[in-house]
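Researcher: Let's try something more involved. This one mixes different molecule types, so please make sure each is placed in the same coordinate frame as the others.
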Amino acid sequence: MSTTVDDELWSAIGDPTRRTMIDLLLSDGPGTATSLSRRLPVTRQAVSKHLAVLGRVGLIHAESAGRERHYQVDEAQLARAVAQLSAVGSTWDDRLRRIKRIAEAIERNRHHDEGE
Amino acid sequence: MSTTVDDELWSAIGDPTRRTMIDLLLSDGPGTATSLSRRLPVTRQAVSKHLAVLGRVGLIHAESAGRERHYQVDEAQLARAVAQLSAVGSTWDDRLRRIKRIAEAIERNRHHDEGE
DNA sequence: GTTCTCGCGCAACCTTTCGTTGCATGTCGC
DNA sequence: GCGACATGCAACGAAAGGTTGCGCGAGAAC
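Model: All components are placed in one shared frame. Result:
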């Protein structure tokens, strides 16, 4: 329950290299496997595999231009991913708050009962 | 830049099984490897390894009680993890909004220039 | 139009991670 | 003491992330 997250999307953005790639595509605009690999500590082939993964879950889509393939972020899908991130975050936040409230209540009772 | 996230923490909560484990520990309170494995689709040994990973990054801590080891979530560290989640989320959100604004500006210009 | 270059995709391979099974140990209840 | 149960450790298999090496097709240079 609660984390009925679309695990496909999560695991796509769970990888640090893929997160950085999305960052680069957002900040620098559309890019190719080669252009991305120049700004990352991995080879073009590794980048290419990650692009395939991101494409499979719809986070990016490609456009062929001559011998190059330009990739860019799918805004709607990324928005969905962000929503999932914040959903999990707020779920955990809520639980943490509730636990804290309960702990404080117990603390108050202890002080009251034992006069400590 | 921007995703200068503490990758240790991210990869810890990046795994779907580990996320569910944290959920269970938050909703049901402290638990053991065995009790968690009963509510998960993996074996006790797998759960045990995940607990080790979560413990290594400080997201949980254990307490020995006889032959059992009770694990529970470290609230401060989880709060830190949640903060990182929402940081990445809002970064991407910002970029998406900015892109959208630019796209709209271009659209307006096109209409103005071409009278379309 | 040949040739040279550059971007890409495919295949083989290595290492780490997630998962399994099997076994030996330690503790609780009787 | 003895059976039952929770753990830990080790060996092994499958998948993911990474690498190198190769061949092909499209642009650029001559």
